[in-house]
Design a protein that fits this description.
It is built from eight helices and 13 strands. By secondary structure, the chain is an alpha/beta fold. The protein folds into two domains: 106 residues, Alpha-Beta Plaits, CATH 3.30.70; 157 residues, Vaccinia Virus protein VP39 (Rossmann fold). The strands form three sheets. It has a seven-stranded mixed beta sheet with strand order 9-8-7-10-11-13-12, sandwiched between helices. Strands 2-3-1-4 form a four-stranded antiparallel beta sheet. A two-stranded parallel sheet has the order 5-6. Helix 1 packs antiparallel against helix 2. The chain starts with a strand and ends with a strand.
């Protein structure tokens, strides 16, 4: 048995359904943006991955026909493990744990917050780009994950080197799930969870993660900016296109500058910095 990587280039409308289908069977999933499409890579430790490859292709044929979209058929190759430096979302429990890439362990069988939503994918990409810059500039001492959900973004920040992370969530059920995922990743000492609304948080943070939704971001914009340190970064997610322009303009009124944007036909994520 060995590691294989099943790859498939998907349009936005097939991304989540294909991700959720593979979530039940594979040992790890990674997603990259390919211009207008997405490159989904599923890692599986197997002696014969072609059964899953066939099932995936049949699944995609049905979905594509229903949605009237096209996709490139999936392929399976031996995984080149030495070149992997991407986030790999690992469904847990699993018999075979990837010892390559940047693994993020998330409980298997969850319906939300497993990394399949485009905004979560964009936020992970933004973290990989922003956090090294912030750490190099002696920033990122404190990170706030506003609306932490399953804890996936807080865990990702910790995996990239952040050490003082606070996750805030109003749902007790989500707090419990996030704590379980943090434990799976052996990060209980580096991530502190609070059952609270974002508006009630105190202190200053060098990076704020806010993968919420557009109208809520506008409502709490003032509170988030007050919590952001000088030269601090904020990653805004969950914004619907074209309403994301309105959300970003709201934050720019408080003196924030756009650093980078991630966008498709439906969803937007933006990285802003306080200047």
């Amino acid at each position: 048995m060995q590691w294989y990587k099943i790859t498939v280039i998907l349009p936005l409308r097939l991304l989540e359904s294909a991700y959720n289908f593979l979530w039940l069977y594979v040992n790890g999933i990674a997603v990259e943006k390919e211009e207008k499409d997405f490159l989904l890579g599923a890692y599986i430790f197997s002696s014969y991955p072609h059964d899953l490859l066939k099932r995936l292709n049949n699944f995609l044929k049905i979905q594509a026909k229903t949605l009237s979209v096209t996709y490139l058929p999936p392929i399976a190759n031996h995984a080149n493990l030495s070149s992997i430096d991407e986030f790999i979302i690992v469904p847990s429990p699993t018999f075979h744990i990837p010892d390559f890439g940047i693994p993020i362990y998330i409980q298997r069988g969850r319906a939300f917050g497993i990394g399949s939503h485009p905004c979560t994918i964009y936020c992970l990409l933004a973290l990989k780009e922003v956090l090294p810059v912030a750490l190099h500039g002696d920033m990122a001492e404190k990170v706030l994950d506003a609306g932490t959900g399953t804890g996936i973004l807080a865990i990702a920040a910790a995996k990239l080197g952040a050490r003082d992370i606070t996750g805030v969530e109003i749902s007790l059920e989500s707090i419990k799930e996030a704590q379980e995922n943090i434990s799976l990743n052996n990060l209980t000492g580096g991530i502190h969870l609070l059952h609270s609304s974002v508006a009630e948080i105190e202190g200053q943070f060098d990076i704020i993660l806010a993968n919420l939704y557009g109208h809520l971001l506008i409502e709490i914009a003032s509170s988030l900016v007050q919590r952001l340190s000088v030269r601090g970064w904020i990653i805004l997610g969950g914004m619907v296109v074209p309403h994301d322009d309105v959300v970003i303009a709201t934050f720019m009124q408080y003196g924030l500058k756009v650093y980078k944007r991630y966008r498709d036909d439906e969803w937007g994520v933006a990285v802003l910095q306080r200047v």
